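[step 3/7] inverse_fold.run input=structure_tokens len=693
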């Protein structure tokens, strides 16, 4: 046995030596027959070493490395083509890719470097840990992180010590999150992605438009690594369910970087950020007709000497949430989420920035923020909390004035790669994110998230008698038909305003009022070129919505949205009528006590708008008419309708309108506008109208 051992040991050592001793160093003596090619490759190798040193120093100092790693990769590829068996070149390639949007390319190079020379660099285990973490081999990643921590002595260990603890924690979070994946599909939106970066998707409330940013080829001059500046693009959802070919939003784009960060809930405004000096600031563009205005820099209360980047409107447009960095000299303290409130109702001035609080902001970077139109839900990207690596997407809810503990949206929405730029449709069933995960078209890609909702219970149902020899028939496991989706309690009211005769688009003013308090919530203008509008109405209120345009009778709608109701989408073409004799309009926000003619206070907003119209057009004479359904006796219905019409006339005269301009007429149930055979039809027939005499 001893003899065998003595014979085998040198053989094993020889095998180990030959297995790992294949590293071909960059020495002239190794390339005697390729002297000129060696000299050229050596230049690339040495230049890459310098770039890598600068890039890694930036990482250790928590500074942005810019294009240092990408520039190093260009040089390293040339050196690697000449000498693919050099451990150091493979190591540097792996190291460099870990700090780009092509992180998935790092692992093969690092594994090869380790195979060629296990002692290629004292950081090999740290970077292998990063690569295995990205590959979701969390056990192997922890093994390499732990080995690096115990074996490495370096001036950077103190800096990396915090990184190591964080990364080990991320791996542990990754094990938990991947063991219980969330119920969602993640699909690459292939027809808008390219091999370049596509990021920061901004979705319209109805889910029909995506505005995004890309550094794809745009005709401008590329930078030192062949990449183009970021421009803003738009795509529309087609009838076949696919997205249209993206088009450049030329009025917003320049030869510098522009990044879209949010499309307003009504689709008429857009927040972007760009660099026109020493730092990034937030700008706003407005949709005027068919064109977007040149971006205007927002107030100094929001934009400071630090970098202000990803921003989001709040649901009521009284605040803007945004991400900001804090600089101390040349170093950065990272990024946090802040908000600024508009001052005294002024749309263009903001108060001092305030943090959203330490519950949301972590000790690490926060990367993007998105406020859902329900006003109570904030999605944001973060490297902190229980992230499984890179940026993860979290959600926090407004509860009693404070933000709740952030919840990781889970795997497969989040991965160890960078996953952020969350934007959701109003229903909450669909969302769009950007991620540089493996399997995309290249770099950052835009992905669609489809939430399944809560898991369905299984029930035993029909029996399968195909196997006649089996004594007990097999029962099919069937899924219940009903799927509960975590929908938002919202109503999205969209459509366009047109002339009732010509169908031509009309620019109109839409006013939203809380009928309970009489408080005006918001005023928007429909698009002057298309007449289109888009409104988000949160639950728990009775809304009065009026539409006004010069030369037309105003139109009103009523939405009574109860707390806890389901998501609704209302798509309506509003046909406005000219102010001329015979025109009639229904007043949908006038309310009476049941069976009585007593006006309720919720009617005041509608009535006051009618007062304003009569004062603005002094020659206007109108008939106020009351209408009922056919329930009960016709004589009582006619009497009630007359009394209700007179109650409206009395209100108008009390507000200074001459009695000679007003006529009250009760028609009972004689002029229905819908069938009385349904509750909804009867509700439509119970109405108050005015007619121009």
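[step 3/7] decode complete -> sequence:
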């Amino acid at each position: 046995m001893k003899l065998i051992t003595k014979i085998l040991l040198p053989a094993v050592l020889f095998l180990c030596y030959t297995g790992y001793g294949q590293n071909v160093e960059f020495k002239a003596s190794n390339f005697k027959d390729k002297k000129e090619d060696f000299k050229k490759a050596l230049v690339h190798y040495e230049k890459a070493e310098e770039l890598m040193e600068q890039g890694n120093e930036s990482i250790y100092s928590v500074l942005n490395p810019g294009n240092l790693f990408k520039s190093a990769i260009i040089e390293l590829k040339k050196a690697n083509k000449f000498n693919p068996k050099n451990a150091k070149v493979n190591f540097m390639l792996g190291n460099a890719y870990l700090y780009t949007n092509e992180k998935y390319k790092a692992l093969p190079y690092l594994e090869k470097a380790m195979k060629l020379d296990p002692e290629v660099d004292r950081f090999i285990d740290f970077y292998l840990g990063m690569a295995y973490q990205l590959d979701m081999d969390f056990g192997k990643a922890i093994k390499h992180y732990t080995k690096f921590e115990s074996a490495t002595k370096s001036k950077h260990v103190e800096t990396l010590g915090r990184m190591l603890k964080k990364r080990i924690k991320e791996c542990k979070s990754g094990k938990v999150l991947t063991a219980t994946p969330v119920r969602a599909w993640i699909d690459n939106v292939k027809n808008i992605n390219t091999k370049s970066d596509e990021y920061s998707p901004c979705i319209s409330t109805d889910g029909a438009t995506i505005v995004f940013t890309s550094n794809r080829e745009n005709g401008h001059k590329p930078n030192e690594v062949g990449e183009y500046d970021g421009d803003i693009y738009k795509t529309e959802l087609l009838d076949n369910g696919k997205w249209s070919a993206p088009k450049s939003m030329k009025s917003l784009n320049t030869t510098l970087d522009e990044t879209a960060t949010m499309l307003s809930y009504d689709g008429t405004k857009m927040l972007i950020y760009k660099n026109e000096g020493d730092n990034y600031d937030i700008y706003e563009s407005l949709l005027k007709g068919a064109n977007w205005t040149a971006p205007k820099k927002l107030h100094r209360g929001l934009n400071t000497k630090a970098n202000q980047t990803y921003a989001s409107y709040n649901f009521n447009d009284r605040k803007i949430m945004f991400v900001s960095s804090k600089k101390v000299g040349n170093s950065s303290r990272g990024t946090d989420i802040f908000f600024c409130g508009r001052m005294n109702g002024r749309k263009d001035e903001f108060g001092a920035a305030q943090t959203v609080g330490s519950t949301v902001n972590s000790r690490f970077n926060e990367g993007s923020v998105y406020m859902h139109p329900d006003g109570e839900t904030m999605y944001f990207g973060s490297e902190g909390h229980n992230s499984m690596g890179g940026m993860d997407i979290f959600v926090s809810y407004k509860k009693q004035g404070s933000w709740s503990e952030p919840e990781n949206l889970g795997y497969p929405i989040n991965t160890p790669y960078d996953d952020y730029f969350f934007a959701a449709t109003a229903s909450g069933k669909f969302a769009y994110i950007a991620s540089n995960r493996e399997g995309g078209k290249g770099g950052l890609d835009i992905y669609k998230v489809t939430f399944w909702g809560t898991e369905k219970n299984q029930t035993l149902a029909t029996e399968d008698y195909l196997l006649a020899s089996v004594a007990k028939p097999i029962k099919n496991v069937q899924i219940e038909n009903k799927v509960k989706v975590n929908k938002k309690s919202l109503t999205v009211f969209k459509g366009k305003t047109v002339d009732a005769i010509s169908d031509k688009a009309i620019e109109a003013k839409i006013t939203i009022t809380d009928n309970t308090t009489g408080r005006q919530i918001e005023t928007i203008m429909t698009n002057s070129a298309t007449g289109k509008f888009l409104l988000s109405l949160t639950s728990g209120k009775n809304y009065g919505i009026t539409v006004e345009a010069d030369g037309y009778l105003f139109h009103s709608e009523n939405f009574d949205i109860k707390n806890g109701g389901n998501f609704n989408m209302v798509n309506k073409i509003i046909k406005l009528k000219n102010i001329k004799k015979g025109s009639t309009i229904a007043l949908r926000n006038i309310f009476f006590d049941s069976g009585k003619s007593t006006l309720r206070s919720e009617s005041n907003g509608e009535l006051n708008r009618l007062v304003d119209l009569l004062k603005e057009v002094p020659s206007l004479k109108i008939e106020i008419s009351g209408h009922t359904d056919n329930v009960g006796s016709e004589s009582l219905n006619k009497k009630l309708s007359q009394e209700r019409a007179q109650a409206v006339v009395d209100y108008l005269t009390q507000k200074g309108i001459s009695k000679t301009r007003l006529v009250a007429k009760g028609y009972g149930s004689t002029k229905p506008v819908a069938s009385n055979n349904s509750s909804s039809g009867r509700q439509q027939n119970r109405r108050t109208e005015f007619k121009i005499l």
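[step 4/7] annotate
The two ends are 119 Å apart (CA to CA).
The first strand starts at residue 184 and ends at 188.
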